[in-house]
Fold this protein.
Amino acid sequence: MLGSADFGSAVVIADLEAGIGTLTRLGDEDVDVVLVVVEPTPNSLEVGARAAALARDKRAGRLIVVASRVRDDSDLASVRDVFGDAEIVVVPDDPAITGAEREGLAPLDVAPQAPAVRTLAELAQRLVPDGG
């Protein structure tokens, strides 16, 4: 059993439901980083912009926009138009991810050198550089 002193270096990653509901209910908890994951589609960008605004309003910590399934410069421009001042991590559209999902396997296990997998692994290292 962990004592309260053991939580000082704890890392908690929460994958919350899509949308902004969880952010609207966020209280004064300490949050170091908020990742807003979007795809370069109008609906996703709209919801992502609202989530980013809420995170900023609540001063929820460092904001990183994860632009997923980016196919080309036009997709990236769409994301930058909405989140130009935010830190943006671009995850390319990658058939290795889709293939792994179809097989019910983790992309990291199936294709660790795929561009999208490498990008996400690098993001994880930036967030938890000492391995957690």
About this structure: The chain has two domains: 31-93, 94-132.
